[in-house]
Every structure is written in structure tokens, then in C-alpha cells.
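queue> holo job accepted (zinc ion)
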Amino acid sequence: MSPKCDWCHRKSQDLETKQLTFKSGDEEVRVCGPDCETQLVDFYAYAESHVVHFLAGLLLVPAIGGAIAVWRESVDNGGLGYLIMGAGMGIAIIKYPFTTPQTAQLMGMKNAIRLARIIGTLLVLTGIVLFTVCNWFVA
Ligand SMILES: [Zn+2]
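queue> job finished
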């Protein structure tokens, strides 16, 4: 397997290996140029400072949405709760598009971020569809 850039996932024979230092420890990355290095470093820093928000969002939003869905079961079949769950989790993922290291390694960080944003968008749409269905198509 020929080495690929950790950010853009382009194959290159002359990748630079860089040692980056973060709060959580050192990380060795391979990048194809200064452009990718800057973007990768920026994203790592962003992820490091927001991973708590990301996790809180993914835990709290479904809990709140679930409670509202149960509470409003007789009003709108839980539609508002589903909207909060879908849209809230979707927005959290779009804003904090953090994937597993395995995913990032498989497709490059840049593409992993794009994939996360697509999943986030689908979640928002799912929430809107469920909300609509619960309010207008379920008697
Ligand atoms: Zn690159």
C-alpha cells in the first residue's frame, strides 16, 4: 500500500511525516504539503476543543427529544420529539463532524468530514420528515 496524505488522502511518494503535539498527546501525521498540514492541524485543534460539546449533544439531544416525544405522544404522536432528536443530532454532527480515527484513516480526514456532514444532513431531514408524518399523516 502506498502512503496517502492524512488530510486529502491523495497518494504521494514524498509525504512529509510530522510530529504534532496536542493536549491529549503527540500524534504522528503524514501530509502531502503545507496546505494539508495547516488544515489538518486546525481541524485537530477544533476537534480537541469541541469533542465534549459533540458528545454532550449526542447524549443530551436524544434524551430531551425522547422525553418530549413521550410527553407529547397524545398531542402530535411524538413528532416534535423526533424533530428535536433528528435535527439536533444532525446539527451537532454538521457542526462537529468528528469521525472515528479508523474512518479518517480509511478515506482521509477531509472525506471523513464530508461523510459526517452528509450523515448529519440526512438526520436533520429524517427529523423533519418524521415531524411532518406525525403531524399530518397519522390520525
Ligand atoms: Zn494532502
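queue> The beta strands are 16-22, 25-31.
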